Amino acid sequence: FWVVPTVEVKIEVVIPEKERSKEEMSPNGKASPLIYKVNGTARHYHLEEHPIASNPYHNPKDVIEASVCHVKDLENGQMREVDLGCGKALLIKESGEFHAVGHKCPHYGAPLVKGVLSKGRVRCPWHGACFNIGTGDIEDFPGLDSLPRFQVKIEKEKVYIRASKQALQTQRRTKMMAKCISLSNYNLSSTNVLVIGAGAAGLVCAETLRQEGFSDRIVMCTMDRHLPYDRPKLSKSMDSHPEQIALRPKEFFCTYDIEVLTEMQVVAVDVKNKIAVFKDGFKMEYNKLLIATGNMPKTLSCKGKEMENVFNIRTPEDANRVVKLATSKNVVIVGASFLGMEVAAYLAERAHSVSLVELEHVPFKKFFGDRVGRAVMKMFENNRVKFYMQTEVSELREQEGKLKEVVLKSGKVLRADVCVVGVGAVPATGFLKQSGINIDSKGFIVVNKMMQTNIPGVFAAGDAVTFPLALRNNKKVNVPHWQMAHMHGRIAALNMLAHGTEISTVPYLWTAMFGKSIRYAGHGEGFDDVVIQGDLDELKFVAFYTK
To answer: In its keyword annotation, does this UniProt entry include Oxidoreductase (predicted)?
Structure first.
């Protein structure tokens, strides 16, 4: 990861990661009743009880100790992946001290030995998650779990690691969490903490509260039919099923008494009386509120926009359906956004043809500038994606009720069996207009460095907010990144508990297309020059965005 001056942003293009295999999680403690409220009907799910996991060092048979190197084999600031026989660990030497932690990032399994070690932290080389080398704790995101930490001892100039076999195999550690003291005593229509939205910000908020010892009731509500899942995967790996991209299994929510109300939409918030009103008329009182509703995709305004086979990718079902309909067919994608470009890349080998319509003259012009945008565009053209630039859709034509053609304002008519719309998004905050919560002219919720709104006890996080960005002299910005949503959720939770913690993280995003991964650190809005190092034609470069 890069330390980026206020006016600089770096981009690196490298070969992308292999996807991690989904690992089973065995939650600690007993599963307690979890109440899902769907369409106003309370449903009680009692999952099977799980035995309480023992201390990993309690069972001598689970412990392994191995000599891994000589003390002089590592210099200060070096990392080495070492094999203990039944699993690997990451051995680190910094300031004359040795540390040992898990060697894989818990997010998607990146080898941390290829990451960056700096000031007591190791940062993941793929998506920028950051871990404390002394504790293994996650300190920057994405991802939810921390690294296991292993004991290190020095004897006769040799370095030994003592580790739990289970920890070596799982390569992840869920932080200790509190549980609700007595869930059965609560009134269904009252909660201490209500979280509106079940994306990364909402889930991290709930988990952080439990990690900090909060033992009162937490309720999350979502319009989605699924428990929280990895939304960025919808355009990067479009045939993923909900259970494959779930952020936590159902058992996790039961174990830690985090209630989730699915298919439940909040339509109004009464901040004076601390009540959230749902679409079906159900009302819930709260003490603290987090609004993390994210954004809603913009739709086309042309004739035919409502017909079958025209999609905004919002759910796993949307993504799955597009893949099925697009296979060996003609696809038109409207908008060279991150979503539009990722969908084009994913479908290029599967569809008969992929056409991309965009108002600008190059993709990603706003983010990456003209030169980088052209280099990315060339890569797409080399992979059979056809661009129609500086134009937009005037009409969608149907035949027998299904999409048949996309007509452009330039006059061009494109054959289309499927159309995916990726023309941007707007914050999902319409339900707050009469609430008294401060909303800016674009619909974003305005928060301070502690993710607090202008209303005491009401916090907001994620894609729907503008917040002061430390590295840009506290300029109020909207940063709709997956990593930033995680951090917003954590900061909001800490300040619900009156910790007084301010956000100071560096924004980070990534995208993967055609075997290349673009990583972007900082906030380059308003750049007036781009300094390129490396080879743009080969897509092996770093770009600095300066002002």
So the answer is: yes
